[in-house]
Amino acid sequence: MNARLDDAAVVAAYARWAPIYDPIFGVITGRAIRATMREVNALPAGRVLEVGVGTGLSLPLYRSDHTVVGIDLSPDMLRRAERRVAELKLRNVERLVEMDAAKLAFADGSFDAAVAMFVMTVVPDYARVLAEMTRIVRPGGRIVVVNHFSADGGPRAAVERWLAGFATSLGWHPEFDKRQMLGRPGMKLLAERNLSPFGLYTLLVFERTAVV
Fold this sequence. Notes:
Layout (H helix, E strand, L loop, with lengths): L6 H35 L5 E5 L15 E6 L2 H14 L4 E6 L12 E7 L8 H11 E12 L5 H10 L3 H4 L16 E9 L5 E8 L4
Parallel strand pairs: 1-2, 1-4, 2-3, 4-5
Antiparallel strand pairs: 5-7, 6-7
Helix pairs in contact: 1-2
């Protein structure tokens, strides 16, 4: 899977998607984003890293006493996020940084929570991204992941298999097994639920354990 998608392909794909991302994906993912933000906003006030912040669709939804840092590999997406922050005067957004999610330039345990929405099927090395998210969250903190995961069978699985051949052009992997997310060092699963529309996305909430 990883051989079909690298950082250059992701950047190129999202340079194409950026101008139309909000009116298309903002509609498709809007309910899932709001559900995720309710989960994050139920946590005590803290410092939150959003991995793959994109155009910043979620940024206005964070509780004002959360301090938010956003990273993304795509400069085209980040420029739109920066405009959103400026236009809406989102003072709780500490900074937005162009950064590889597999090589986070933050100290161990420097965040209370890390959030990744619709990211794991985009990155070339999801295992490394998860390891980095775990590293930068303090023990007892939360790692919140929302993603589309492959169907086990039926028409949706057939469509996913067909789309998998276009992963490089799409900039994401249509096929991704949820089981790859589970049983990882330093991550204890606390909650799992399907999100609208049609249960297309799954929300996973992990606690960062003291032992990695």
